Amino acid sequence: MLRFILKRLWYGLLVLFGVVTLVFVLFNILPGDPARMMLGQRADISSVEVIRKDLGLDRPLRVQYALYLNDLSPLSVHRLHDTGNPFWFDEAKYAGAIKLVSGKERVLVLKKPYLRRSYQTRREVVQVIAEAFPKTLLLAAAAMLFATLLGILIGVYSALHKDSWFDRLAMVLSVLGMSLPSFFAAILFAWIFAFVLADVTGLNMTGSLFTVDDLGRGEYFDLKNLILPALTLGIRPLGIIVELTRSSLLDSLSQDYIRTARAKGLSQFHVVTRHALRNALNPVLTAVSGWFASLMAGAVFVEYVFDWKGIGVVIVDALEKYDFPVIMGAVLFISVILILINLLTDILYAALDPRVKLG
Q1: pLDDT (tens digit, 9 = 90+) per residue, 44-86?
Q2: Where does the pLDDT of residue 168 fall: very low under 50, low under 70, confident under 90, or very high at 90 and above?
Q3: Which CA distances in Å does 95 have to 31, 84, 91, 101, 201?
Q4: Model confidence over 231-268: pLDDT tens digits?
Q5: Helix axes 324-352, 125-160, angle to 10 degrees
Q6: Closest CA to 146 of 54, 74, 238, 213
Q7: Containing H/E element for 108?
Q8: Contact 308, 230 (CB under 8 A)
Q9: pTM for this structure?
Q10: When comparing pLDDT for 200 and 171, which is higher?
Q11: What gap in Å lies between CA 111 and CA 126, rounded to an integer?
């Protein structure tokens, strides 16, 4: 088990290295100058150069890349005394770092990954992500909970009543849900349930977890703003989970061990829940884990339409302002989550199916 986990973590680090390299190259070959976007198009050249030097954009690209990798790595090498060197060990910037090996000119330190500061707000990227991520996590979790519970129930009922009117209707609706783009579904749901039927549902077209009171009494917790984004985000995984549950359960019910269990006199409920469904959940687990990670990464359009102040809105805002550190930090954060969820999925495989061995 430990060897498997370490091996997957090593593969995950290689994936992160590829993500860092790819995104760094892309955002440095695209046209645009963050310094000029910060100061405006009418800024003079001297002011732009000062900002570029302060952000480190005046250095060669290979130096910027090496410095960024050094900032991200938990183990990093820095200069001790040369304050003009880009690799100088700034104790204020690397707060909490532990010096492991110190020489005359260089020092090896153990620190938390430093994601730098936003070009626009000058806030640390970690703080920006820490504020936005819980809202995206709540949205993705609510969407997957809705899709998983309802999808498994519909899939099981459809499999047990194959070719009935309910089964055919469920298959039609699941295909429709999978083919409906999230951005279109968000606009459609917002118009129907928060505009046309607003008097019936009482839902808002836009709003986040905390809403500012129109009467000037500050922010208040408004959970109903979660309903429409979660339903919209859960439509596509719901359709996939319904079809996967149905097809996998039908396959399990046709196996020899199911016929043996029925021959022993076990009830239909016991056969389905204790034998067939447990072995049928592996592809469903794969879909749930993959979709949960992708929902946190792909909730950009839904969050933008409903003005849900999550990490998707942060990414869109950073793209508009060419805020490279925020974009890189958000992409890396989502990549880490995806790797950890895939690792957890592989471990759960072994727990659900004794035929699966970790090795």
Answers
A1: 777 777 777 777 777 888 888 888 888 888 888 888 887 778 8
A2: very high
A3: 34, 19, 6, 17, 49
A4: 988 888 898 899 888 888 888 888 888 888 778 777 77
A5: 40
A6: 238
A7: strand 106-110
A8: no
A9: 0.78
A10: 171
A11: 14
Asked whether the beta carbons of 233 and 295 are under 8 A apart, the reply is: yes
The DSSP output letter for 124 is: B
Domain residue ranges of the chain, discontinuous segments joined by +:
125-352
Query: Closest Cα partner for 125 from 49, 71, 162?
Result: 71
Cα–Cα distance between 305 and 134 in angstroms, integer? 19
Contacts of 319 (CB under 8 A, 6+ apart): 327
pLDDT for position 102? 83
Longest dimension (CA), the chain: 86
Rg (CA), the chain: 26
Q: At what angle do helices 277-298 and 324-352 cross, to 10 degrees?
A: 180
User: Tokens for 250?
Assistant: 């039908």
* Closest by Cα among 156, 159, 144, 130 to 309: 130
> How many whole angstroms separate alpha carbon 325 and alpha carbon 257?
55
Q: Tell whether the model's pLDDT for residue 330 goes beyond 70.
A: yes
Judged against a pLDDT cut of 70, whether residue 353 lies above it is answered with no
Amino acid identity, position 80: L
205 residue type, one letter:
M
Question: What does CATH list as the number for 125-352?
Answer: 1.10.3720.10
Q: What gap in Å lies between CA 225 and CA 262, rounded to an integer?
A: 47
**Amino acid at site 71:** D
Please state, as a whole number, how many other Cβ atoms lie within 10 Å of the Cβ of residue 316. Answer: 14
> Which pair of structure tokens corresponds to residue 22?
């790819």
Count CB neighbours of 272 within 10 A.
21
Q: Tell me how far apart the alpha carbons of residues 198 and 52 are, in angstroms, rounded to a whole number.
A: 49
- With a CB cutoff of 8 Å and minimum separation 6, the contacts of 308 are 135, 139, 207, 208, 209, 225, 229, 299, 302
